[in-house]
TrEMBL record:
InterPro entries: HTH_IS21_transposase_type (IPR017894), IstA-like_C (IPR054353). Transmembrane segments: none annotated. Keywords: DNA recombination, DNA-binding, Plasmid, Transposition. This is IS21 family transposase. PANTHER family: INTEGRASE PROTEIN, TRANSPOSASE RV3428C-RELATED. Pfam families: Mu-transpos_C_2. Residues 3-65 form the HTH IS21-type domain. Belongs to the transposase IS21/IS408/IS1162 family.
Amino acid sequence: MDILSVIRRWALRDKLPIREISRRTGLSRNTIRRYLRAGIVEPKFKAPSRPSKLDPYAEKLSGWLLSEQRKSRKERRTAKQMHADLVQLGFDGSYERVSAFVRAWKSDRQRAQNTTDRGTFVPLVFKPGEAFQFDWSEDYAIIGGERTKLQVAHIKLSHSRAFLVRAYLLQTHEMLFDAHWHAFRVFEGVPGRGIYDNMRTAVDRVGVGKKRDVNARFMAMTSHYVFEPGFCNPAAGWEKGQVEKNVRDARSRMWQVMPTFSDLDALNRWLEERCKALWAETTHGALPGSIADVWEAEKSSLMPLPTAFDGYVEQRKRVSPTCLITFDRNCYSVPASFANQPVSLHIYPERLVIVAEGHVVCEHQRIIERSHRQPGRVIYDWHHYLAVVQRKPGALRNGAPFIEMPEAFRQLQDKLLRKPGGDREMVEILSLVLHHDEQVVLCAVNMALQAGVPTKTHVLNLLHRLVDGTPTDQPDVTPPSRLVLTKEPEANVARYDGLRTSGGKRHAS
């Protein structure tokens, strides 16, 4: 570079002859003429094209490298392994030639990705009611005085950019279905297409290109709401960039300014109100007006909202001899008539429904425990064990399910179990809830306890009066003074014997 600069200065500025420049530099006159004639400012070396032993195998090696890029890092072959495989195919070149080819191929591919793939994007435009985008994120909130990790569903309309954020404790199928229902309810309609990444709750297997094995329950939901699901390419989150940006913006606009909440329902109510407030506060950007204004215009393009999808996940369970089924480390009771039998468990976000023989057997509130350090809980319903204690009344005394009975039943049990046969008498009183309203039975038990007569006979008498509508609190009758007896009758059963005999004759046996 320095010699070329000197040659150009001597020839063009100092007007030295080529012979003198050649003498001073030691270069040939033809070389100096070539530099000056071509107007070369910077010397360049042009590598000659030489044939290589790798040329017949270049296409094969490029195909290997492309297939290896689709695998995880732990499964990819090294350049040395590829060289050994090429040797098996007849290649007799060196490993250095193969490694140089691999480096050049990776460099070209990275350059292409930075210019025509990941580094360059095409702006997207969506028609009203055309599509929505969905994504999950992880965030934290103070619920019930504890910092709780949450799985947050983000749903955003692609045209109006109206969005909904809803929090759950788990990222499972039933939570996914529930998030869609609440989003369509808030949007007041259903768009024509949904854009997702390849989440496990929707895609069972990712195939070549756009081929996907979609989960059957997810397809049932899309069929119910009548929209077409579309899935991004693997590791290509920018294909649903609107909702990806919404995940980032929500942290500063919602989670960092969020108050504390008593339960998850209160949090979701606050999130829904906060999202609608942000619609009115945020300008659309591409269209005039706010997000709320564009959403009002888009509503007419959405499909009318159908009924909610019955978004449960079904599992087959077998009831244990203790009338329990297990789900997520917790146990739930089932009526004793289904002990040791298979049942179907329908899992919803907030409840569990047990179904057998085509009918709903019972229902429990779902318990979700995020900490695995604590032992699982057992959720009893004492009504489910009445059929057992009717055959085994002695189990009532220490039966774990009956600890959760109402306080009136517990007080009556303490009094009845002190006398012989009290356990069976208590079981017969508890069994009244199978035929009468439980609150009416509780009222009769409370009245018997207040009257100081805690017996089955008195409870039955009070219960029949309550069922028939007969007043149970009759006032005391005070007779007038004229009707007061001057001589109280005596209880003397011997007088009946006098009626049986008269004049020494016996009239009745």
